[in-house]
Write a sequence for this structure.
C-alpha cells in the first residue's frame, strides 16, 4: 500500500530541499500548487468551473483567469467563499487523487 505524505511550510522553510531529496531517492512528488495552476489554466477543469459559476468577468483580455478580480469576487461574501472552497476542493482533491 502506498503512503502519501504532505509537506507544508512557510517561505524558505525547506520544502524544496525536502522534495528534491525525495525525488533523488526515487519517490514520486506531486506539487499541489503546480496542479492547481494547471487546473486554473485556460480550458482546465477549475477554470471551466469558475467561469461557469462567476462568468467571464473574471477573465482578462486573453481569456485567462484574472486573479485579482477572482479574489475580489470570492472574498466579497462568506457565501461566495464557501461555494468557492467546496467547488475548488472537489476538483483539486480529485485531480490529486488521480495523480
Amino acid at each position: 500500500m502506498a503512503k502519501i505524505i504532505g509537506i507544508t511550510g512557510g517561505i524558505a522553510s525547506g520544502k524544496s530541499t525536502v522534495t528534491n531529496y525525495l525525488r533523488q531517492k526515487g519517490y514520486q512528488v506531486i506539487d499541489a500548487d503546480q496542479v492547481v495552476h494547471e487546473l486554473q489554466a485556460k480550458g482546465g477543469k477549475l477554470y471551466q468551473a469558475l467561469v461557469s459559476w462567476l462568468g467571464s468577468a473574471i477573465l482578462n483580455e486573453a481569456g485567462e483567469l484574472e486573479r485579482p478580480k477572482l479574489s475580489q469576487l470570492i472574498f466579497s461574501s462568506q457565501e461566495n467563499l464557501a461555494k468557492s472552497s467546496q467547488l475548488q476542493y472537489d476538483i483539486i482533491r480529485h485531480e490529486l487523487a488521480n495523480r
Q: What stands out?
A: The mean pLDDT is 92. The radius of gyration is 16 Å. The chain has five helices and no strands.
